[in-house]
Amino acid sequence: MVDANIVLGIDLGTTNSACAIVQEGRASVVRRGEDRIVPSVVAALRNGELVVGREAKAQRAIDPSQVVYSAKRLIGRRFSSPEVQRMMRSVPYRIVEGDNEAVMIEVGGRRLSVVELSSVILRYLRDMAEEALGGRVKKTVIAVPANFTDSQRSATRIAARLAGLDVIRVINEPTAAALAYGYIEDMDRRIAVYDFGGGTFDVTILQITRNVFEVLSTGGDSALGGDDFDRALAAWLLEQAGFSPERMPSPAQRQEVNLAARWAKEVLSDKDSVSISLARCGLGPTEVGREHFDALIQPLVRKTIRAARATLKDAGVEADELDGVVLVGGSTRVPAVRAAVAKAFGR
Length: 347
Known about the structure:
Layout: E1 7-12, E2 16-23, E3 26-29, E4 38-39, E5 41-44, E6 50-52, H1 54-58, E7 67-69, H2 82-88, E8 94-97, E9 103-107, E10 110-113, H3 114-133, E11 139-144, H4 150-162, E12 166-172, H5 173-180, E13 188-196, E14 201-209, E15 212-221, H6 226-240, H7 251-267, E16 273-278, E17 283-289, H8 290-315, E18 324-328, H9 335-345
Parallel strand pairs: 1-11, 11-12, 13-18
Antiparallel strand pairs: 1-2, 2-3, 2-4, 5-6, 5-7, 8-9, 9-10, 13-14, 14-15, 16-17
Helix pairs in contact: 3-4, 6-7, 6-8, 8-9
């Protein structure tokens, strides 16, 4: 029998999502098989059925126009907002205007709101938890970026309700990170949370006083993430394979390069070099060293450090006045990122 008081903690991310539960005083991330991370992707199959996660992501090689990703960038925004207009130019799926400037997405032969699409991902996470627990889960706490507006927070709540969840609380992501890293009880601390995910970068300065978490300042870049590391390496690989503006790769070739770039990035977090072969692109074994990869991504890493310094300045805090720096997000596993943060914050 599942405890009716169990609350599902949800991280609805731009690139990936996850959920966790607390049982007997211990938090554990919910898994489905070996997967504990769910790509924040929804796709329509040819029969109109909506699928989520890895299955949805795989559809990008079949019909990119029916694969919706990074919907978090759109939630709670008006169609006329600069962010929505910018995203319309960069994604293969169709974003259209609904009633009252609502942002709608055409997928599977219908128009769905961003809230509806977000609810599909949340329902998938709820189903994962119920499958793991063997019973119904109704309550949730959802983490959102510290700079989310009231409209974005409200839209996230509505999406959860559509997924059959009762939102107990919406918590700021940096606060959730601080709690996860043990900044609790009666500690008085001032910390920086450097959150570098797949699709976004956020940095927040938090003042923690007797279990009260105050956001002193927040900054970052909503259009910068680890996916940009993949793109930088993919662009270099395409050059090595002889592609250019005059000779563009096919969708299948581009997909091969993108997958190889992501795989290489992950391997280079632990190893000094990796060998890449691209059969469809006609590229034989090509060695990529960590130093070369670091050089490709340095301009992007420097952007995050500039944003972090600006956020410190806005908070009126010097780096040496911080009691700690919390690293969050998959992109912080990249050694060049960790080294840059350590240098910038004097750690």
